[in-house]
Amino acid sequence: MNPGSRKVAVVGVALSDCGRVTDTTPYALHAQAARRALADAGLDRARVDGFASTGLGTLAPVEVAAHLGLRPTWVDSTSVGGSTWEVMAAHAADAIAAGHANAVLLVYGSTARADIRAGRRTGDLSFGARGPLQFEVPYGHTLIAKYAMAARRHMIQYGTTTEQLAQVAVQARANASLNPDAMYRTPITTDDVQSGPLIADPFTKLHCCLRSDGGAAVLLAAEEYARDCRTAPVRILGTGEYVSHASMSEWEDFTVSPAAVGGRLAFERAGVRPDEMDFAEIYDAFTYMTLVTLEDLGFCAKGEGGAFVAEGRLLTRGGRLPVNTDGGGLSAQHPGMRGLFLLVEAVRQLRGEAGARQVRTPAGDLPRLGVASGTGGWFCSSGTVVLGRG
Q1: What are residue 287's phi and psi, to 5 degrees?
Q2: Element (H or E) spanning 274, and its range?
Q3: Model confidence, pTM
């Protein structure tokens, strides 16, 4: 956003029904989340002139927009994996700031869990098995294996332990225990994580995200529109994005994620430092994602993530840096491309609407600053958004 351009705020957020949702469609989840976000903002659908969506399968934005009764003059269908929604939010904020749109709705819906249970396959079945990636697949180097290899490299290089990684899952579950919308709320221990079935060394089952159904929506608007909304605006202060590689052979350092670039850009553009954040919402398809993203966003030095996450209850609501306050993809919900859920939770925290999981500053005040950082592919892309209250 250029100096002197319009300020942009998030004015509405919502989730659709999430978790174990049966007898529905992705279209219905899109519509439910969109209606709820518009109601949250108190903004009439007719005032929405920008639209962005993407997802697993063949849901094109033109089809979803038509299903929602929208006729946008600005549209985006960026697809860079789990970081898509932070990247889309950046594009939408730039469009609003430049005057190309006034109110942009970002919406996602997926029946990932229901489809698997019904024996239906969704998404691009050739993803990860064509182009340069086809040369990795015959060796069993599929999605989870890629993350596992990166985690093992960090362990070898910096002495990170599986017990430290397990602490990420334990603290995510502690946060989820305060979230009535989380799929799994029963507290777990490090031993529970360590003793689970091995999925891809060093990851056991609880090191990996759950699979759920669900949707989310976020409504961004220019500041003059925000004045007409029923909610307190949450400002988009700075954004950053970065795409680093496709195949693992192109990844220069398995211990550095693209958030090292995208996050730095977001903080610089917002004019704030990582140590000023009151909380962080981080994409956590696997425990290692949380750890390495914390390092790359600047919350601790490279190689110190293991000790950082193992520091007592650091990542929980009452900790020094609450992370994934809704329970994250490890315990709350993960219907495929989860990045939009990070923005919803960040906004609820800044508006003081998080209920029992509400973060407070040491002085007892509502948080003032927060960051949402999404990761896509196998650390192939990153999108980071810094948000502020008032």
Answers
A1: -60, -35
A2: none
A3: 0.94
CB 44 within 8 A of CB 225: no
Helices (H), the chain: 26-41, 61-67, 84-97, 112-117, 143-158, 162-176, 190-194, 223-226, 259-270, 287-296, 305-309, 328-331, 339-351
pLDDT in tens, 303-340: 999 999 998 668 898 899 999 999 999 999 999 889 99
Domains and CATH numbers, the chain: 8-120+214-236 (3.40.47.10), 131-206+238-389 (3.40.47.10)
Q: Tell me which DSSP letter residue 356 carries.
A: G
Dihedral sign, Cα of residue 148, residue 318, residue 273, residue 233: positive
Tell me how long the chain is.
Answer: 390
Contact in structure between 92 and 101 (CB atoms under 8 Å): yes
DSSP reduced 3-state for 301: coil
Whole-Å CA distances, 85 to 107, 194, 340, 384:
9, 32, 5, 9
Rounded CA-CA distance 175/160 in Å is 23
Picking from 197, 379, 207, the residue whose alpha carbon sits closest to that of residue 287 is 207
- 339-351 vs 84-97: helix axis angle to the nearest 10? 60
